[in-house]
Amino acid sequence: MTVPDPTSRDADPVFALHRGGKIEVVSSVPVTSREDLSKAYTPGVARVCTAIAQDRDLVYDYTWKSHTVAVVTDGTAVLGLGNIGPEAALPVMEGKALLFKEFGGIDAVPICLDVTDVDALVDTIARLAPAFGGINLEDISAPRCFEVERRLQGRLDIPVFHDDQHGTAIVVLAALRNAARLTGRKLSDLRVVVSGAGAAGIAVSRMILEAGIGDLAIADSKGIVHAGREDLTEEKRLLAGISNKGGLTGTFLEALVGADVFVGLSAGTIPVEAVRTMAPDCIIFAMANPEPEIHPDVAHSVGARVVATGRSDFPNQINNVLAFPGVFKGAMEVRATRITEHMKLVASEALAEVVGEDLAEDCVIPSVFDPRVAPAVAAAVAVAAREDGVARL
Hints:
This protein is of the alpha/beta class. It is built from 17 helices and 10 strands. It is 43% helix and 12% strand.
């Protein structure tokens, strides 16, 4: 990607919006007198500190912890830009913090760490955790991201959520539920092909398998993931054991023959001829950015009934902002110690139900600006947390 020169940057409205950053810290109490100062800081604050020292849970009542998330990255897998480092990742983390506030009413702090070693990364995040009510991991490369999340959740008693994995999976499953309903099918009727076996591809595959999809095959750059391959990572090997009932091998294009659903989570493309080989009324989720694996108009012209992308200028945008604000809001309202698989599944169900009677080929997922989304997801997540025994309220 070409970097604009300083002159063109000054004229670019995107750069203008980002100048000085997109978020700020604002006081929530007045400090206009000596009395205000003495209560907000010393000596009054010492009484609050002493109370928390005696009962650690009071930190949720008398600090920002109950409503604040750390958005953490090491800059190794930023958007589609790759390993660009922590400084270059900061605009994205600021943006994520902005979305937390705008769509979920949650305060969030962007934290870009200059460390990529898994042990050091986990230790650093864990040492920062006492100040926050949740950890949103972002743009950490696979397969490291799986281990980082697992180890942090085992070490901490607050929700840890890798949005590239689980946010994507929640929204894809919600859209898939509605696409199946629109086309008169059940999830159990569908055969899915996923292109891309990174963090998002593996998480999406796991979640839709858990939801009861008929069959699923996932492909990486070397072809379909199957138990006979000897070059699989641990995550892919585990996935091979629960997917691909048909024993498919070869490329994802070969697997598309007769498939009901294509889920694109890589930078590849789908030839028009491949879509023609899919089942009637097929479903295409072409989520590569900035260019989808196939243009929606082209996909529709050769038989696709429902097409979704990751872009806001096409219908059916698969956008993680439909998931993570509500997931964290619900989890933090009940002080959940973690986010369970059940909580993710009900988040997806709640998101799908928001569409309701508006279901149509160009509306299988709500708009990101639909004010019903975050409350619906949060309410479902809070109930599920209590059912799973991870809620403290």
